């Protein structure tokens, strides 16, 4: 499989190139040359595979054997998921008739980004090892300096994915005082020599601007061989595709239904996905295009609802405000104005619904790339673009969307923690997960044993304990302290007081960050 760009001007990249480069030279994102179909008998052949075995099957459709031999790929997968605490890696938990929670938070940092970043870390290491085989002199070895900006989850997941890897250095910029205390502790208590936390006096957007500046700085780029692990990295999307298949098989197994059977065909599955940068749900789109039976992919947003509005009218429109247009919500990992991965979906929508039918097959990609480029220019210059009725219709064939307020988020957390139905077991969910569940309840007209919702849980509730506490504490008769002790993972004990390593820079200036990187790498 080779990779091409969403802007239509670059193609024929290898998987390795696509993963290491992050962004395509024409400004687009890498996507596979074509979306592979799962084997025609996958519903029976894959049904009883473990997560790791399934990952091997899915990934090998996108990674040529000549690039990564099958045995090596299996090793990479096995090592990546050996750090997870649950034997199913991404277990499916039934909360009531027809409603299932896909728990993606059993990795080292308790958020779903681990599923991808554990794999990406090993992948980077694998590529470097191969390049460096036989090179003894440290000065001659290929090295990658990963620089990332985070408002929370990406930073800790990247650090845990890359810690202690040879020839890799990782710098994470985060805005001082603006990440949650637990997230900050998770990042800064990692003391491995190759991990460098930089606390930047500014906002998350300032950190991102510095990052963009560094990647545009050709001298700096080549001197340090910068690598990116942000959510547009293709390998992250790919790794996430696996749990859509895995959860479908888990569902049918729990219902005692044979995949591919007539009975199975009667089960309609909607995946509800708490969405920020559109990476998680995009993986669902790939799974769907590969052949996974899905009824709808539901984009669940909080008050930052540009995507929700898109799926209503086909218009992507930034709301501008004093705060840069971002609303601060109880689900901060989804507080995003423009979702970076959405461009990948736009490419497919443009190709399938905006390119004129008379355009020959061989020119469709270029044409779709031009259309996407035009939309992106409009978004930058006018703050909006309109994709038209056909694109909207194509989008709605596969997706639906809902938006959820903070108040509704809290109500949902409460409702599942204290179910009215005595037969239903209490379940504590984090605020992001609650956005997904709430959206499903308001959008899916009937949820029952045939119309199933699999709602993706993107974080452990203890990771966003402030919001969970806020939702639960004015409840009469709840002993919050006691209750929370019961769900708090043992890994969080002592985290707040553990030794930390972090460099603080007082102002958000690129030059100061460059200074820190140069200094840390010279020792
Ligand atoms: C990153 C994140 C999301 C959003 O996922 P995207 O792939 O960016 O859409 C949702 N919830 C949590 C907890 C996250 O960390």
UniProtKB/TrEMBL annotation:
Its cofactor is pyridoxal 5'-phosphate. The modification N6-(pyridoxal phosphate)lysine is found at residue 113. One of its GO terms (biological process) is threonine biosynthetic process. It is an enzyme of class 4 (lyase). The keyword Mitochondrion does not apply. Pathway: Amino-acid biosynthesis; L-threonine biosynthesis; L-threonine from L-aspartate: step 5/5. Gene3D superfamilies: 3.40.50.1100, Threonine synthase, N-terminal domain. Keywords: Amino-acid biosynthesis, Lyase, Pyridoxal phosphate, Threonine biosynthesis. PROSITE patterns: DEHYDRATASE_SER_THR (PS00165). One of its GO terms (molecular function) is threonine synthase activity. Belongs to the threonine synthase family. This is threonine synthase. The lineage of its organism: Eukaryota, Fungi, Fungi incertae sedis, Mucoromycota, Mortierellomycotina.
């Amino acid at each position: 499989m080779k990779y091409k760009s969403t802007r239509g001007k670059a193609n024929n990249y290898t998987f390795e190139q696509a993963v290491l480069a992050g962004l395509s030279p024409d400004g687009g994102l890498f996507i596979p040359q074509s979306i592979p179909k799962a084997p025609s008998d996958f519903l029976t052949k894959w049904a009883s595979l473990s997560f790791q075995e399934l990952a091997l099957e899915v990934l090998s459709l996108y990674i040529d054997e000549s690039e990564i031999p099958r045995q090596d790929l299996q090793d990479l997968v096995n090592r990546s998921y050996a750090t997870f605490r649950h034997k199913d890696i991404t277990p499916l938990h039934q909360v009531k008739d027809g409603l299932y929670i896909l728990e993606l938070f059993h990795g080292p940092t308790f958020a779903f980004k681990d599923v991808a970043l554990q794999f990406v870390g090993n992948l980077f290491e694998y590529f470097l090892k191969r390049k460096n085989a036989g090179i003894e002199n440290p000065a001659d070895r290929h090295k990658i300096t990963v620089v990332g900006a985070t408002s929370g989850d990406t930073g800790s997941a990247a650090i845990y994915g890359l810690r202690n890897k040879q020839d890799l250095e990782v710098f994470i910029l985060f805005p001082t005082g603006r990440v949650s205390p637990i997230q900050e502790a998770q990042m800064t208590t990692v003391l491995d020599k190759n991990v460098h936390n930089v606390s930047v006096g500014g906002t998350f957007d300032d950190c991102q601007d510095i990052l963009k500046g560094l990647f545009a700085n050709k001298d700096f780029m080549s001197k340090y061989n910068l690598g990116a692990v942000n959510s547009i990295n293709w390998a992250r999307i790919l790794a996430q595709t696996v749990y859509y298949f895995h959860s479908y098989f888990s569902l049918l197994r729990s219902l005692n239904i044979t995949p591919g059977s007539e009975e199975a065909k009667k089960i309609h599955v909607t995946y509800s996905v708490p969405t920020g940068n559109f990476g998680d749900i995009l993986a669902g789109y790939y799974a769907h295009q590969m052949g996974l039976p899905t009824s709808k992919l539901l984009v669940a947003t909080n008050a930052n609802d540009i995507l929700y509005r898109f799926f209503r009218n086909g218009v992507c429109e930034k709301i501008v405000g004093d705060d840069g247009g971002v609303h601060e919500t109880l689900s901060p990992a989804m507080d995003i104005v423009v979702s970076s991965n959405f461009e990948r979906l736009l490419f497919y929508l443009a190709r399938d619904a905006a390119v004129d039918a008379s355009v020959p097959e061989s020119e469709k990609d270029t044409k779709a790339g031009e259309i996407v480029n035009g939309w992106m220019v409009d978004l930058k210059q006018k703050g909006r673009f309109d994709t038209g009725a056909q694109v909207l219709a194509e989008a709605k064939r596969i997706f639906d969307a809902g938006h959820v307020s903070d108040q509704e988020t809290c109500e949902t957390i409460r409702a599942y923690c204290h179910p009215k139905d005595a037969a239903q077991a209490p379940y504590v969910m984090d605020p992001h997960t609650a956005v997904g569940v709430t959206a499903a309840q308001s959008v899916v007209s009937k949820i029952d044993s045939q119309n199933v919702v699999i709602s993706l849980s993107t974080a452990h509730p203890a990771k966003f304990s402030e919001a969970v506490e806020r939702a639960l504490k004015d409840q009469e008769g709840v002993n919050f302290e006691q209750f929370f002790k019961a769900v708090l993972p043992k890994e969080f004990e002592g985290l707040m007081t553990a030794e930390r390593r972090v460099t603080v820079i007082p102002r958000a200036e690129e030059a100061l960050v460059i200074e820190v990187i140069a200094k840390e790498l010279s020792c």
